[in-house]
Every structure is written in C-alpha cells, then in structure tokens.
Recover the amino acids of this structure.
C-alpha cells in the first residue's frame, strides 16, 4: 500500500456527510473490497479570521471555538488532486484545514 495516502480534515458536524460523499466519489475510502471507509472523532477547532476574510462561522477579527470532527480516510496517490478538489468543493469553510500523509508499508 506504498502508493496510498491518508487525508485528515476538520469539518463541522453538519457538513460531515457532504464532505465524506464528495471525497468518496473522488476515489477515497477504499480498503481492499471495502468502500466508504473512514474514521472520525470530536474535538474543538479554533481560528481567528484576519482582515478580508469571510468566515463561515463567526466574524473576522473575533476568535472562534467551534465543535468539529476530525475525519480520516485513505486514497490512492494518483487520486490526490481529485480528492483534494472534491474536499475543497464540498467543505463549507473558506480555508479548510486538512493534511495529506504518505503511507508506507
């Protein structure tokens, strides 16, 4: 599975299914004969929008503390551009926080 990547993204609960559906449609979430594989847990995200931002939650210049879910799933390396584009399109935040990790076996 050395050509695999892991996507970790922080998403508000109400957008979880929309983001999952989008990245799965782009090729994420497959492990062997299983599809739509993911894992998520609750946490709190914080941010402070600077001048010129348009936060989906709160307002620029005010620090926000927002309940979010940390969503993880895997995808083949060759699908990275599609998975990231799908994530950005489906995510409600102006600048979604996410990481992509290379998986090694």
């Amino acid at each position: 599975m050395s050509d695999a990547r892991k996507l970790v993204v922080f998403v508000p609960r109400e957008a979880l299914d929309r983001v999952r559906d989008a990245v799965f449609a782009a090729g994420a979430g497959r492990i062997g004969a299983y599809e739509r594989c993911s894992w998520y847990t609750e946490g709190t995200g914080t941010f402070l929008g600077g001048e010129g931002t348009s936060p989906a939650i709160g307002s620029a210049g005010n620090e926000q503390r927002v309940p979010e879910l940390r969503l993880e799933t895997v995808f083949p390396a060759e699908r990275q551009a599609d998975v990231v584009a799908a994530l950005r399109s489906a995510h409600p935040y102006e600048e979604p926080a996410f990481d992509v990790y290379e998986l090694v076996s």
